[in-house]
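Quick sanity check, Putative aquaporin transporter:
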Amino acid sequence: MSSDNLHRTQTVSDLETGTSEAIRRHAYRHVLAAKSISQRILHFERITPDQLSCIAEATGAFFYVFPGLASITTFVLNTQKELRATAYGSFFQIFFAFTVGSFIALFVRILSLGHMYPAITIASAMWRDFPWKTVPRYILSQILGATVAGLLVVVIYWNQIRALKEAMLAANQPLVSPLGPAGIFLSLPGTSRNFTAIWLPVHGVLIWTAIEATVIVGITYGAMVWGFAPATTVKDFARYIARSVDQRIFATLFLCGGTFSYRLYFWVAILVHFPVVLFAAATWELFLRERFEKKLRTGTKKMVREDELGGRTSSEHVGFIRTVS
């Protein structure tokens, strides 16, 4: 074999056939050996998309619950102090905390659908072809995320929560009340309130309508807290069942009993919650969705047609006017 042919054998394994012949007299190429893949990376790549989506759901539930729960904690812990709760929080602050938590939480939609809400998961399976086999995993993930958020709040504020518990016991006040230590973790109605607001499907229609719009969903959650919490003394309107179940268990273990039997509100919230959200989703899917999508398609076609003609165009469905050069 000639020296020229020997030179070609050094490039033929590095470059494609034909390319090596073209550059064999003009350039030399050396391909570095690829780094070995670690076992940790191989193990991570074995995680299926379903597992990643469950992790995302748990993360989203955590970020939704934690800011609002922390805000409720500061509000309740300071109601007995001289400066009163207004120096540390208010219903507006709680509204803002849940809204911001929703904004942050819904960014997990990159990996999951961003339900973070058991009733929304079930409604998605009924109306949007979400696989039923994934529903239990999503709901358990949502409960897990809310559980971790509750545990973190307990760890951070445990000394203050215990002091409030001892003070209320000394004053012969009930621990299971909206402004008691159990009220930090639970959705509890006031003694003079009724359960009328829990039947309202308004929030379900709004959330289902704007499920693709992160900002609107966050504002919807916050608006329900803002509008109905003062009337019902329920900080998060008892809508977040993933937070309600596990944190009633917290209150039973760490504070007192009676968290499940207080005015039977836990059972009312669960039994009413799912039908209300499913009714809201059905209202949207059966009566509103087709007209909304038709209007959206018409507006999109109008904007595209005007763009093709050039000049000044306006798009009413997104609310802006722009000039095409």
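Posting the structure with no commentary besides this: The two ends are 65 Å apart (CA to CA).
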